[in-house]
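tool_call: predict_structure(chain=1)
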Amino acid sequence: VQLQASGGGLVQAGGSLRLSCAASTDTFKLYGMAWFRRAPGKEREFVSVISVGGGSTFYADSVEGRFIVSRDNAKNTMYLQMNNLKPEDTAVYYCAADREVGRYFSALYYRRQHPDEYDYWGQGTLVTVSS
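tool_result:
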């Protein structure tokens, strides 16, 4: 599975961006999908995760209420709508996919927030928020 993240850029604080993650597989609908990010000098951190059908989502506290994750299984694509962006959101954003997360989404409540759980990764897209 190849993942291609796009949509990053430079935006002022309070602005919005929408990231996309396109998957190369027609079995996209079987994968739990997630967004992670890595800020300069920091570890990769969890942002959001979405179930196979899109009906269940979960967010890090730092983005809850500002970011919205969604997916379009017909287009093999996941999205991250980022609103009210803050300078601390500046990071490289990565999308990730995993079949086990897709199959056992609810049971993997903690593991689905950890990057080690995911088998496939996109290359990352840079988001820079200026103050």
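agent: DSSP finds one helix and eleven strands in the chain. Proceeding to next step.
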